[in-house]
Amino acid sequence: MQERADIFKLEPVSVNPSFVKGEEIFYFLGKYSSAVIPGTLKVDKDGFFLYWVADKISGLAPCSDKILDISIIRDTRTGLNAKTPKDRGLRDRANFGSSHSLEDKTVTISCGTDLVKVRFLSFICSSKDVAKIWYNELLKVAYNLRALHGSVEMFLQKKNMLDYVLFIVTTNLDTCQFSEQYLTFNELVDFLNKVQRDPRLDEILYPYANKQNALNIIYQYEPSIPHKTRALLSYEGFLRYLISEECLPVKLDKLDLCDIAKPLAHYFISSSHNTYLTGDQFSSKSSSEMYRQALLSGCRCVELDFWDGKHMNKPIVVHGHTRVKEILAKHAIDAFA
């Protein structure tokens, strides 16, 4: 059990109200897309999903509407790093709103379940300022530590299964052969101290749970008001407690970013070998995008293999003496910007 004062040190997910309301955009799905589609871009109030809905005037079927799990967003980009249509006709059609450049009004989202299988989605906003808001705040939601290390309750809520699981448990208590339908606060104190507490903990630094700790849990998680007034915890309330943030295996405050104040030798540094490769070391492709993805994943030591280029005397990055396709050193360095 975590100390209650520690649980809420990490900032909860905060979704900009304008994201919930929705923003008029044009969306452009990849460099091979042959269309820019008008629609509305939204985020649900819990910050679980990003979704965009095509306007009726686009003539597209409802199946063209898309949804993206925000937890797999790896990066957001705008300005020179945004991916915009190359076709002049598409650019003219999508360039609505303010007179800012199309790149400045575009937010490109990099997403994927791993570093290599990354795809890009571009959304063209009405102004540079609107694009900047989505660029900054969407990434904050995606990298919120409290959401990335959420409780069982949060993930059930995300899957819209929380009420279903609670119903299944509370309607099948007889199979568990429970003599009572609730725990008293004394029984809850015994559970906290004898079952849940790690006996190796120091008693002074981590004191045993007491009556007040049990009552706090009952008041927080018991859904029945009559049970609360009698200081009883039903099995639904007990389950809500077990799947809550208070019962995470790692304290949330330990996940927070902190300043590195000790000598470098006190830390593990995530490093990367042949960072530029998208596959094997003999015949795969090199990509400057791999440097971005490695850095976003927490890597702080990357490898650049510089070689003399055969054309225009420009240096390249490549796995030497193999069939790996090269990239310009300039593009690899630009990826760090």
UniProtKB/TrEMBL annotation:
Pfam families: EF-hand_like, PH_14, PI-PLC-X
Catalytic activity: a 1,2-diacyl-sn-glycero-3-phospho-(1D-myo-inositol-4,5-bisphosphate) + H2O = 1D-myo-inositol 1,4,5-trisphosphate + a 1,2-diacyl-sn-glycerol + H(+)
Entry's Gene Ontology molecular function annotations: phosphatidylinositol-4,5-bisphosphate phospholipase C activity
BP GO annotations: G protein-coupled receptor signaling pathway; lipid catabolic process; phosphatidylinositol metabolic process; phosphatidylinositol-mediated signaling; release of sequestered calcium ion into cytosol
Enzyme class: hydrolase
Sorted UniProt keywords: Hydrolase, Lipid degradation, Lipid metabolism
Hydrolase in keyword set: yes
Domain of life: Eukaryota
Residue ranges annotated for the Phosphatidylinositol-specific phospholipase C X domain, each copy included: 258-337
Recorded GO CC terms: cytoplasm
EC number in record: 3.1.4.11
SUPFAM superfamilies per record: EF-hand, PH domain-like, PLC-like phosphodiesterases
Name of protein: Phosphoinositide phospholipase C
